[in-house]
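Minutes, project check-in
Item: structure for the 483-residue chain
Input as provided by the requester:
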Amino acid sequence: MTLESEDHRGESVLSKSNSNSSTSISSLKKQPNQISLLTSTENYRNNLQNHFGQKNGKISLNNNAKPNDATMNLNNHNHNSYRNNNNNNDNHKSNNDDEKDYDQMNEKKPEIIVHLDFNNDSENIDYDKKRGRITIFGYRPSQIKWTNVIWLLFTHTLAVFAYVYVSLYPVKLFTIPWIVFLGVAGGFGVSIGAHRLWAHRSFKARWPLRAGLVLAETLSMNGGCYSYARDHRCHHKFVDTNGDPKNAKRGFFFAHIGWWMLKKHPDVFRMGKKLNHKDLDDEPLITWQKKLYVPLFILISIVMPTLVPYYVWNEDLIISFFMSAVLRTVVVVHHLFTVNSIAHIWGLRPYNRDIGPTESKLTMYLSLGEGSHNYHHTFPMDYANCEKKWWEVFNPSTLFVDICALLGLAYDLRKPSEKVIQGVVRRIGDQKFYETKLIVHRSLRHRIMHGINDWLIGTIVAGWALYPPILFKLVTGRPLIVF
């Protein structure tokens, strides 16, 4: 693995480790364009301790190595075992294109060689904020996924224009329920299909339901089910570390949508190779979607939603395109992305106080039932993604799965018992808050009334994007809808 870090002057620096690291210095040999790293053993040790965060490590400088090389040798039992396991399992997948881009990006950068030998391979080095001669918000151009950036800029600019356009011109009556249907379907495709079914295997589904969820997920512009499930397993296993593709510790913007604009951190590849994705490889529907995602997205998420209103109830073609394809897609994407950002930063942690994910009501409403995130990271196998039943809290995704179970389309729904949940809360959760919540909602009457209120509020909040154009038309006297 290639390792280098630069400060804002383009000079190689070391900056992060803990106090148990043992340090040795062989020598420093100055060369053209090479910096003097440190002047004392103590300062050098302190800088390393601040950078690597490793225990029982041995770090040394090699002044005879080539100045344009930097290597990390993790010669320990765990690391070798992990490498051997990878060699024996051809089914562990990663994005090789991104990995190659990172390898190219790291060429000809460092000027001092640091050989590292640790007793574990859990280094947590921020590759993504290295400084070079030219940076954009602290990232080098080679670290940015320019195709994604251009696509996001295009769709969001178009969405702003579309929002203004639909505020000025009337919309046909049936277009409103049509875009609501498409938005809910896309949300279900991610929440129920890519997330609960394929990422966590929290229930099983018959092929008609699986096929429907694959098509619905394509509506969301959230990538295919395969890549979502693969990355989401990595997210759970290494949550809020550099091995997490959506690491919330890198900031709100990165967790929300910035991860989509940058190439993956090398730790995502390295740690992700430890996970088994054979079940995803053996699922023909999602591998088919993976191969044909771009044409499927164009057909299912853009062409079909636009043409149905135009031909079926004579909606204006521009209005149909703006509302059914552009606005609906952009709004749903941001609703779903609140799970990675809001629900990892703000909120309570009653089930596990030691992790970042939280309980977020706003995310619960916007993502159609994914906001009980502290619970979900504590009990990821729960098909409901929430301790409560769907009639107790706003959770349309769970309601849909329960209906499918009644129809025989879903089965083997997994859920931990109340005894197991309470036992976990006693050990690692906020027991006082949890017990208070149980007292408030202990009776059936309280649970039903809370559910009615929550569904009412959730429905209103989830439809927020419709309100500004409606309000503008009411204030300006423009026609709201036409038949």
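Outcome recorded: The mean pLDDT is 77.
No further action items on this chain.
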